[in-house]
Amino acid sequence: MKHKDKVIFVTGAGQGMGLAMVKLFAEQGAKVAAIDINEAAAKKVAEQQSAESGTEVIGIGCDISQSSSVRDAITEVVQRLGSIDVVINNAGIGSIDSFIDTPDENWHKVINVNLTGTFYCCREAARVMKEQGSGCIINISSTAVMSGDGPSHYCASKAGVIGLTRSIAKELAASGIRVNTIVPGPTNTPMMADIPEEWTQQMIDAIPLGRMGEPADIAKLASFIASDDASFITGQNLAVNGGMAFL
């Protein structure tokens, strides 16, 4: 199996792309920690995927916008599964706000989850991986960074993720840790359900391949990046957007 006995830490695992990643990695033989702010959802995913795959999948509640919560989750995974080989920072939120009318609260909430939360997870995971002498971190950004098609807080947070990835990829390379960013285009996830239908159709019309991405499309790229086949890839942005934008 492609990822047999590797330990994979996936945030935002309760639905959408995170759920697809948990499912695929478990099918490929990995031990998976399904992390979500909704602890009940994380445990449900873990129970279902463990039963389906026959591998060990655990569910942990974690608010990634709180450094202590991230630290506790990382510690629990190491204690229960023995190590952390791959971290996928998939958890993210959005809010439909025009720039001028964006409340301070919404700005801080989106930045704290999408960017600061990714920073916390990267930092805590890197401390473990440095001790191990190896590891792989995969951060999730968005094609909205290039197109500007999204609320200001969301675009800013996802642009920050790309900058964070490039910086820590250089710093952590000497410790055997690879860091890359997946940059999805519009993807058929629960978050998209909050977007007005006319906006959704405009997005599809702008995609040369004529459809939205599916969570499995993103999961398959994550599996490749996490594999030994990608051992010489670090500090890169890898787009999955049907030709909508070019990095």
Automatic annotation (TrEMBL):
InterPro entries: NAD(P)-bd_dom_sf (IPR036291), SDR_fam (IPR002347). GO terms for molecular function: oxidoreductase activity. Keywords: Oxidoreductase. The keyword Oxidoreductase applies. NCBIfam families: PRK07231.1, PRK12826.1-2. Belongs to the short-chain dehydrogenases/reductases (SDR) family. PANTHER family: DEHYDROGENASES, SHORT CHAIN, ESTRADIOL 17-BETA-DEHYDROGENASE 8-RELATED. This is Short-chain dehydrogenase/reductase SDR. It comes from Shewanella pealeana (strain ATCC 700345 / ANG-SQ1).
